[in-house]
Amino acid sequence: MELAFIPSPSRGVLHLGPIPLRGYAFCIIIGVFLAVWLGNRRWIARGGRTGTVADIAVWAVPFGLVGGRLYHVITDYELYFSAGRDWVDAFKIWEGGLGIWGAIALGAVGAWIGCRRRGIPLPAWADAVAPGIAFAQAAGRWGNWFNQELYGRATDLPWALHITSSTDGRVPGYYHPTFLYESLWCIGVGLLVIWADRRFTLGHGRAFALYVAAYCVGRFWIEYMRVDDAHHILGLRLNDWTAIGVFLLAVLYIVLSSRMRPGREAVVEPGAGPDAPSDADTSTASAGTEDGTGTDAEGKGKGNGKDEDAADAASAGLDKPAAEDSAASGEPTDADASAARTESVTDEASDAPSASSATSRDEAGSAKKS
Question: Residue 155: in which H helix or E strand, if any?
Fold first, then answer.
């Protein structure tokens, strides 16, 4: 008698009238929103614009879903194209069956298209969304729990998963909850990437490569525990070989990228960043320039007029406040001094003819005497 175990849901779909609400689909949707939300925050912190991650995800997510389904159908084609199978089931994505390898590969193609349209580097965008993708996988793995699929070997551990369905060759019993192992591993991978990115300032796609390498390590031992049908090569499941190959490629990329392009991108999105003016700031500045020019011109005109009046008043000796203060104190003003100078000049001018006449009379008298 088992005292503790993880129960499986009695069904993986609820019906809201004619609309089916599938647990598998909800887990994927939650994962996508989580990846976009966290990726947007990290992109803004890197100097990007709000909404860029979501705009590119519009391309990446559909491509990723198609790629994930194609990988699953190709590697497990017997489930859809062998005798007694219906090939139409290959399109029933809600019943489960998404290969992460195909999802990442074709999703990257969609992301490349979106980045090219926005004029931003794909590696920088991938670095921003890398932890979010890991957390999205952690949420998406719970869809396997709703479908009672992809479990491990039989076990009597307290956290064993109780499988109750007998469809598609399942044998009810208690098994390793590999969906839970991978979900927890993906959470750890996401936290690892966030820490390493802050500690080593990863750039040029190295944060994304770290996510890929770390995920492959966990996927290798988790895949090794699974008991569902799969192709084997040299005693290992196909996904184990895929994990080994992708891990080596990710590590090689980290090494080569660190040598060829050290550091992090200074600009991840042209025209963005804390110093870039927003549309509102640009329009406000433009309006302020037009209004400010007229105001400055009018102010200069008014100021020049006042300066000219002050200069005229000073040259004419009409500084009224100064004159009034001088009159009140009994001291001669500038006007008084000017008047005195005028009278002096007038007196000298009037004395000059008299002196000239006296000199002429003296000269005439001398001439008569002679």
Answer: none
